[in-house]
Amino acid sequence: MTDITNTSAGAEPGSFLVAALYHFARFEGFADFREPLQTLCDETGVKGTLLLAREGINGTIAGTDAAIASVLSFIRARPEFAHLEHKESRASKMPFLRMKVRLKKEIVTMGVEDIDPNRIVGTYVDPKDWNALISDPETILIDTRNDYETAIGIFKGAVDPQTKTFREFPDWVRNNSGLHNKPKIAMYCTGGIRCEKATAFMKEQGFDEVYHLKGGILKYLEEVPEEESLWEGACFVFDERVSVTHGLKEGDHKLCHACREPLTPEHRASPLFEEGVCCPNCYDTRTEADRDRYRQRQKQIALAKKRGEKHLGS
Asked: Per the database record, which ranges form the Rhodanese domain (predicted)?
C-alpha cells in the first residue's frame, strides 16, 4: 500500500482530513470510473463512501491530507468534475471503517423523475448573507433533512418537515399549501446536495423565489462566527464523529448501534441506555431477544477492541 503521510502545514498530528463533496454533471461513463477510483482510495488508505451515477458524484471521504488531495485531483481530472468543490473538516480518528465506491441511479435519492439541477435550480446564498435572508419576515425557512438529523440541531425559526427519508419531501411540499403564503422560500441541508434537488423540485412546482444555503450547514458553521450564528444545536454528519458544531469541531453525540439515532450525553445517562444494545429512543421498540442479540454483538466488538482490531459490525 502506498504510504502517504500527513504533510499539510496546518494539519494536527494524528488528525484526519474529512472531505465532503458532490457535483451534478452528465456522467455517462460512471460505471467504468468505479474500479479505478476504488483502487486509488484503497492504495492511499482513504476511507468513506462515494456514490457514482449518471447525474454525477456524491460522498464523504477521510484520510491524510496528501491522500485526500490525490483522490480529489484524480476526480477533477475527469472533465465532468473539473469544477468540483469540496468542504473540509477534521477528525481526531478515522471516522470510517472501510471504503465503498457504489453505482447508483441517483447520487441523492428523491425518487422524482427528470429533476435536473443542471437545468433548473434555486438561487445560491453565501453563508455571510444567509442570516439576512432567513430573518426576513417574507421568507419561509425549510430544513430539507430527516427527523433524526433535525433532532439535534436546526436553524432558528425553520420549518421541520419531520421526514424519515428524502423521498417523503416531495409529498410534504405538495400537501402544504401554506408554503405559498410568503414570496420567498429558503432551504438548507448538511452540505448542499439535497437542496440542489429540493430547490429544483420547488421551482418546477411553481415557486418563484427559491433560495438555498451554498455549501450547506457545514459551510455556515465554518465561516459564520458563533456569536453571529442563528444555528441552534449540532449538525449531524454521516460518519463516526456523529455531529459537528461551530468551527466544525467534533460534537459530543454518539450513535445508538441498535437504532442508529444520535444520542446526547443526557441520553447516555438514562437507565434505558446500554451501549450497543438500546437507548431511550428505541428501548420500547425492541424485544428482549433483540437486546440479547445486540449484547452478543457488543461482546464481539469489545473483544476486537482488546485485540487492537476494528470490528466491522460496530
From this structure: 135-229
